[in-house]
Amino acid sequence: MIFIMEATRFLTLDDVAPLARGCAVLGTGGGGDVRSAALAAGRAIREYGEVPLVGLDDLDDGDLILPLGSIGAPTVGHEMIHGDDEPELIRREAERLFGRAPAAVMPSEIGGGNGVHPVAWAARLGLPLLDADGMGRAFPEVQMVSMFVAGLPPTPIVMADVVGNVTTVRPVDGLWAERIARAVCVAAGSSALMADYILPVGEARGAVIEGTVGLALALGRAVERTAAPLAALAAELGAKILVNGKITDLRRETTGGFARGTVTITGVGEDRDRALTLEIQNENLVATEDGRVLATVPDLIGIVDTQTASAVQTEGLRYGQRVSVLAWPCDPLWRTPRGIATAGPRAFGYDLDYIPLEDIT
């Protein structure tokens, strides 16, 4: 049962642009294209009406949450856009599996287009959007969600693609969820829509990261109302600016359902004679300078346009771009032993121990 009170916040057309700006920053390079997602969200709001933004306390413990997000390589999702039918196909299958209709949509991840598209999906399904997600950012793999860190089983995973195929997976754990879902995604052309960790509100308490839709909105608003957007964004995030420079080297390829690569930013102005290297797997994972680690996952590393503070996603990186690299702390959940094991540098194959950003000098 959904309690939508008069004081409930509604997401309007005016919210779409700042939400997209904030989600792009929280995507740390990944999460999908925010431009197409913003167009879809705006169209859905105009067609179906404003979307209620609710918290867990606005729902009953037994209400079913439907986390939705794209899985695949952002470079593919930029061109192969989701159709209108995929959310409805997933909703129908979830209702069949659980014996009741979902009560709210939740972004699987707040980063990138995966933080914005759920507005369109919620509007189209006639459901509220939960002010929470499973990451507080974007991560590339299925098990890299707060629900896995909290020890919850993945439950049946439901996937749909642009052709109309619907696949239900019952993995034994989150790691198998990644293996099987990734194989299905690659078969679908490295892009699909997925619902995993479909769960009741009572199980979501303490297992999802709350307030992240509101955070993305706040970041977008902070940037749009100032003459010094980079400083404003860094202040709102509590972020360090690692370097101001331009992209002088870029290697990027789509393989195994991921966009992987390395980007080098050579400093300009006060940062001249410096060169920072970022390792990428959909998202920016590790920042180094002359072999010295400056920041690593699960802390967040973002590339933004130096003048506008607009986030530059993995698929938008170009040689010669003037950019700034920011880093800021992750949600405390990711700094637990299980969180670090799930999404720390060693989880991505780097022979590095995680050091909190604020402890790196």
Automatic annotation (TrEMBL):
Domain S-Me-THD-like C-terminal: from-to ranges: 174-357
According to the UniProt entry, the coiled-coil residues are none
Leader sequence range is none
What residues does the S-Me-THD N-terminal domain cover?
Answer: 15-169
For this protein, the record's InterPro entries field holds: S-Me-THD-like_C, S-Me-THD_C_sf, S-Me-THD_N, S-Me-THD_N_sf
Q: What is this protein called?
A: DUF917 domain-containing protein
Provide the species name.
Answer: Sinosporangium album
